[in-house]
Amino acid sequence: MRELSIVFSHPDFYVLNKPAGAPMHANDNELGVVQQLSEQLHEPLWPIHRLDTPTSGALLIGRNQQATAALSGLFAHRTIHKTYLAICAGKPKKKQGLISGDMQNVRRGNWRLLHSQENPAQTRFTSFSLKPGYRYYVLKPTTGRTHQLRVALKSIGVPICGDTRYGGESAEHLHLHAWKLQFEYASDVFDITVPWPAYEHFANLPSASEITANE
């Protein structure tokens, strides 16, 4: 069982740095990531939200049922603000702005973004040059749909590196990372950042301070 790293600890919750490839639900090869952490810490734990299996980064996990319900409610009411980072190859149709549209399940678990706006998935983003042929993207979703960020970037012509499902350039891992969670809970304000591993393939990956300066 893989060793899991907690980046923030509170009496009511943990923030886990979920590894890329760690599943939320058990499969034939390993336990779900929350159950893995529960066994590692010998403590009952509850999932508050989820990340796709290939996505790394900030995962909020409840340490008691009351806190889990309260924090899940913050997600449901969209009062937890999430920031993701991604790396893509190629030139996007636009370098910043809003990506908005209804999402349609097309086949085999794949989704696509439509032009219609009946109940749209929405993502605000900025992007910055990383090195020739590559850009990094700061993504702020205001909704939480399945594959939303992956489909959003594909829709502007730059599927995420490592996202073979949506036509991204081949890489060891999906280059999508849940970087920051910002929320208010129990009268305290939290701004929690989870470092992104410096992939050797992208030696010039900007630091957290550089990303914050560019937001």
Structural class: alpha+beta
> Separation of termini?
37 Å
- The overall pLDDT average reads 91
Largest sheet: 10 strands, mixed
- Poorly predicted parts: none
> How much of the sequence is in beta strands?
35-45%
Helix content: 10-25%
Order of helices and strands: EEHEEHEEEEEEHEEH
What is the count of β-strands?
12
Rg (CA only): 17 Å
User: What is the helix tally?
Assistant: 4
Principal-axis shape equals globular
Note down, in words, how this protein is organized.
The termini are far apart. The strands form 2 sheets. Strands 1, 2, 3, 4, 5, 6, 9, 10, 11 and 12 form a 10-stranded mixed β-sheet that branches. The chain has a two-stranded antiparallel ribbon with strand order 7-8. It is globular. With 215 residues, it is an alpha+beta fold. The longest helix is centred in the N-terminal third of the chain and has 12 residues, at 65-76. Helices cover 17% and strands 37% of the residues. It has helices at residues 33-41, 65-76, 148-155, 208-214; strands at residues 5-9, 13-18, 46-47, 56-62, 81-89, 96-101, 103-107, 110-113, 121-131, 134-141, 176-185, 188-193. It has 4 helices and 12 strands; from the N terminus they run ββαββαββββββαββα. Strand 1 (5-9) and strand 2 form a beta hairpin.
